[in-house]
Write a structure and sequence with these properties.
InterPro entries: PH-like_dom_sf, PH_domain. By secondary structure, this protein is α+β, with helices and mostly antiparallel strands. It has 27 helices and seven strands. It has three domains: 190 residues, Leucine-rich Repeat Variant (Alpha Horseshoe); 186 residues, no CATH class; 141 residues, PH-domain like (Roll). The strands form two sheets. It has a four-stranded antiparallel beta sheet. Strands 5-6-7 form a three-stranded antiparallel beta sheet, covered by helices on one side.
Length: 619
């Protein structure tokens, strides 16, 4: 049969040629011959006129045969020829009402291995095959989503169970794609997201065979998953799992098609760790303390829906085609939170909020270029306490951000008050006096000599330092107000603290237990306005060092170079003050200030901020 690619067939001829080729194809026993027939049939259809009469030729048996060919071929070019024929069937070029589409969809749904086989070919080193396969499934999914046919659920299930999306990830992250494949990839992902949104918003309706099938599958999985022995679940076991005493009614009223598919897939792939924890928890808990697995399953579906339907998780949204991993880990995290917090059914909303923060944590990790799988494992391994700390910090940041502009002046006042408090604390410590060394204790020890000491104290008028040297440190504090030397603070321009090396060797093979030493030797020089050292002493602990060096800096108004310990103390106190006092502003007001730019500016009473600085006392 010779065909002129530039001419068009009349309807009668196209039907005759197509009918003969379809018959040859079904009767063919040779792969090469089948491929040749497919190529010729595609050419015939390409030059055929638009005709609904051709529809009857493409029966389910024929389409099953065409799909079967794809599972038997190894040549990428041969597979591509067959898939191009499938694309032609659903393109609408000559079948305006897509009747062949429904027949092809039924064939795909009946045998999952067709999708599995094509999915396995996505990573093949061929520049054209991946784009062709992606184009075919995009068109299949697009028609199903646009027409919102009930069979959309089965097509989506087919893609999931056929590991099609896993093949997509391999293609994207390991194999790489050309521009055509990348374009088809993004089209398919957008269409998949739309399909998930539709299925999430669709309740199970038993009048549809495909919904009935999904409903039955879920009940079968539940029957063998709600007890440790895998025996048919009792009414009591359904109740303890959160299904009430009428699980069928519960499923139909509470679960969407998507949440039913996700939960069923979760039950079929339960890992040993989850099973062990779940059944132990059931065994030792009262009814209201049993982990409501179905309620948390619905909750996890809601979280995945939020990723797709909001802009809160832009980084996570890029990974929703592998949502099974996230769903499974949300379930596992919820179970551990439930157990560790000793929750009961009244705490479900608290669990939901904590899962929201787990997703925020995950979003932050992925946005910092953390590997998706590693990031999910990191979040899954969070303890209840760690997640609570993260939640607290996020709330704190959010609250601070909302009130940032309005409380800027308040923060400055708080900082000044905290600085004043630390200053008074250091003055108080200095006014009690303490022992320091008058000579380098490390050099003295190296010469088997005991270092001499100063007793130093701040004068009552806070204008000078009184000190006196002693051979040994006394067990009681001496009174040196009348006979000690006086150092006028006005002569000091700056204070320089220099840490001293102190190496302690431990013999090799020592059986001694090493204890971390609190000894921290530091030399403190007091520098005059003429840049001369006018006094030097040595401290042996960090506490003594920052008490004297920072205390003297406060006294001489040179607070730009405070020690890390003192700076941290100032920062922590200021943060505590702000956190406690900003809570007085209230959550409702905070939310009001979170309005969009198009809303009118929030109004607040300026006197409200005056109350923030009252009622707070340091101890």
């Amino acid at each position: 049969m010779k065909l002129d690619p530039l001419s068009r067939l009349d309807e009668t001829s196209s039907i005759q040629y197509s009918e003969s080729l379809c018959q040859y194809l079904i009767n063919s026993k040779d792969k090469t011959e089948s491929i040749n027939i497919v190529v010729v049939l595609l050419k015939v259809l390409d030059i055929s006129p638009s005709s609904e009469k051709l529809t009857s030729l493409f029966t389910k048996d024929l389409l099953h045969y065409v799909l079967e060919i794809t599972t038997q071929l190894s040549s990428p070019e041969s597979v591509r020829s067959v898939v191009k024929l499938l694309i032609f069937f659903v393109s609408g070029n000559i079948f305006k009402a897509h009747p062949v589409y429904r027949t092809l969809l039924d064939a795909l749904i009946e045998k999952e291995q067709y999708t599995s086989s094509l999915a396995s070919m996505l990573p093949i080193h061929d520049s054209k095959l991946p784009a062709t396969i992606l184009d075919f499934y995009y068109k299949m999914l697009y028609i199903a989503t646009e027409s919102r046919i009930p069979e959309l659920a089965m097509l989506y299930r087919n893609l999931k169970r056929g590991n099609f999306y896993t093949g997509l990830l391999t293609l994207k992250y390991e194999q790489g794609m050309d521009m055509d494949a990348a374009f088809r990839y993004h089209e398919l992902i957008r269409c998949s997201h739309k399909a998930e949104l539709i299925l999430f918003e669709t309740k199970i309706q038993l009048k549809y065979d495909c919904h009935n099938f999904i409903f039955t599958l879920l009940l079968q999985s539940l029957n063998t998953s709600l007890n440790e022995n895998g025996t048919p679940a009792t009414k009591g076991e359904f109740v303890r799992a959160g299904f009430t005493d009428n699980p069928q009614k519960f499923i139909l009223s509470k679960l969407s098609v998507l949440s039913a598919l996700q939960f069923n897939n979760f039950l079929l792939s339960l890992n040993v760790a989850f099973k062990k924890t779940y059944f132990e928890q059931l065994m030792f808990s009262q009814d209201d303390r049993c982990f409501p697995i179905i309620e948390v399953g619905i909750m996890s579906s809601d979280k995945l829906y939020q990723i797709l339907n909001t802009d809160k998780y832009p980084s996570l949204k890029q990974h929703t085609i592998s949502s099974e991993l996230l769903y499974t880990n949300l379930m596992g995290l919820a179970l551990r939170i439930w157990k560790d917090s000793q929750a009961d059914t009244s705490d479900l909303q608290v669990i939901s909020v904590l899962l929201d923060y787990a997703m925020i944590y995950l979003e932050q990790l992925i946005s910092q270029n953390e590997n998706y799988t590693v990031a999910i494992q990191t979040v899954h391994d969070l303890t209840y306490e760690e997640l609570r700390v993260f939640q607290r910090n996020q709330i704190k940041k959010s609250h601070k951000r909302v009130w940032k502009e309005e409380t800027h002046s308040v923060s400055k006042i708080i900082h000044k008050e905290v600085l004043e408090f630390i200053k008074e604390e250091r003055f108080l410590q200095l006014s009690h006096g303490s022992w320091v060394y008058s000579e380098n204790p490390i050099e003295a020890a190296a010469n088997n000599k005991k270092p001499r000491s100063y007793f130093m104290i701040l004068s009552p008028n806070i204008q000078s330092i009184i000190y006196k040297e002693y051979t040994d440190q006394l067990t009681t504090k001496p009174n040196i107000d009348s006979n000690g030397a006086v150092l006028d603070l006005s002569k000091i321009s700056r204070i320089v603290a220099i840490p001293l090396q102190h190496e302690e060797s431990v013999p090799e093979n020592s059986r001694l237990i090493s204890l971390a030493s609190r000894t921290f030797y530091e030399r403190i020089d007091l520098i005059s306005k003429q840049n001369q050292i006018i006094f030097t002493f040595y401290t042996s602990t960090k506490e003594a060092s920052y008490t004297w060096s920072d205390g003297l800096k406060f006294l001489t108004n040179s607070t730009k170079d405070l020690s890390p310990d003192t700076r941290k103390q100032i920062s922590d106190l200021q943060s505590l003050r702000e956190s406690i006092q900003l809570l007085k502003l209230g959550k409702k007001e905070s939310q009001q200030l979170s309005c969009s730019a198009s809303d009118s500016a929030p109004s607040y009473d300026a006197s409200r901020f005056d109350t923030l600085l009252t009622g707070f006392y340091y101890t």
